[in-house]
TrEMBL record:
The keyword Metal-binding applies. The active site is at D62 (nucleophile), D64 (proton donor/acceptor). It comes from Flagellimonas meridianipacifica. The keyword Nucleotide-binding does not apply. Binds 2 magnesium ions per subunit. Belongs to the HAD-like hydrolase superfamily. CbbY/CbbZ/Gph/YieH family. Transmembrane segments: none annotated. Substrate binds at residues 62-64, 78, 97-102, 105, 129, 167-171, 198. CDD domains: HAD_BPGM. One of its GO terms (molecular function) is magnesium ion binding. This is Beta-phosphoglucomutase. The record marks S167, K198 as: Important for catalytic activity and assists the phosphoryl transfer reaction to Asp8 by balancing charge and orienting the reacting groups.
């Protein structure tokens, strides 16, 4: 015991480690100072082992339905296009479009209506929907964060976490500008960054790479079933925003961003902070 509780000692007053069973693990700093194995192990635990363990260093956020509710504006634009073309389109079908690209979305709507069109026409119709959607973005203001989103982003910034956007939208920068939210992100990953749509994890892998982090060092926030699938396939930790039926397969789920505080997140992923 005497060996263990002797810490930083001078050879003169303390233990001569050469004569103890700990002689191989004691460290001589200088002629007079030796660090005992007991203190050496404490030092190792905090400064060596701890940094070897995987810790959460970054967050990747989906945009629509997580930071702001443009999911609603997407719905309105698709609904207008569908009405103009006599297609059936409702909120249930709209939920299936969460997280997937514009062209993949129109394919889902056409398949639902048993319609086949050539590529050119599909492209033109997708552009028409986009014009309606972009027009509606002019009404988005810094008041339009989903409750809790701005608070969480601010908290992550003050605690020094790395933050990326991982959205399938080609209009993501415009939405962030309207919200005055560009400053919360180190990296903007959007529909122009990768070609594959969620559930492919490409957009999140892109974000992690740009942040200089491994997937298991990041938590992904998603409101889409396909987005949670993408996060899981990519090896990320995941938080689902929305009902169990949609995002219940995420590691952790909140009904809304208002419940997603850093305190709650740290309590759940406690071994990773
Ligand atoms: C987000 C939305 C999808 C949308 C996609 C593409 O992921 O959740 O509903 O289809 O972005 O958006 P864009 O603005 O490029 O048409
Ligand atoms: Mg979304």
């Amino acid at each position: 015991m005497r060996y263990l509780f002797n810490g930083l000692l001078t050879k003169k007053e303390g233990v001569n480690w050469k004569n103890t069973p700990f002689r191989h693990s004691a460290v001589n700093f200088s002629e007079n100072i030796t660090l005992s194995p007991f203190f050496l192990n404490i030092f190792r635990y905090f400064f060596v082992l701890k940094t070897d363990l995987t810790m959460i260093k970054g967050f990747i956020f989906d945009l629509d339905g997580v930071i702001t509710d443009t999911a609603e504006q997407h719905y309105v634009a698709w609904k207008k296009l569908s009405d103009e073309n006599g297609w059936s389109f409702d909120r249930e079908l709209n939920d299936k479009l969460r997280g997937i690209s514009r062209l993949d979305s129109i394919q889902v709507i056409l398949e639902h209506n048993n319609i086949t069109l050539d590529e050119d026409t599909i492209g033109k119709l997708a552009n028409q929907k986009n014009e309606k959607y972009v027009e509606s973005l002019d009404d988005v203001t810094p008041e339009d964060f989903l409750p809790g989103a701005k608070e969480l982003l601010t908290h992550l910034r003050t605690e020094g976490f790395h933050v990326a956007l991982g959205s399938a939208s080609k209009n993501a920068s415009k939405v962030l500008q309207q919200l005055n939210a560009l400053g919360y992100f180190d990296v903007i990953g959007d529909g122009n960054s990768v070609t594959e749509s969620k559930p492919n994890p490409a957009i999140f892998l892109h974000g992690a790479e740009k942040l200089g982090l491994q997937p298991d060092e990041c938590i992904v926030f998603e409101d889409a079933e396909s987005g949670v699938d993408a996060a899981k396939t990519g090896g990320f930790h995941s938080i689902g925003i929305g009902p169990k039926e949609r995002v219940g397969h995420a590691d952790l789920r909140f009904d809304s961003m208002a419940d997603a505080t850093l305190f709650e997140i740290k309590s759940y992923f406690k071994d990773l902070f």
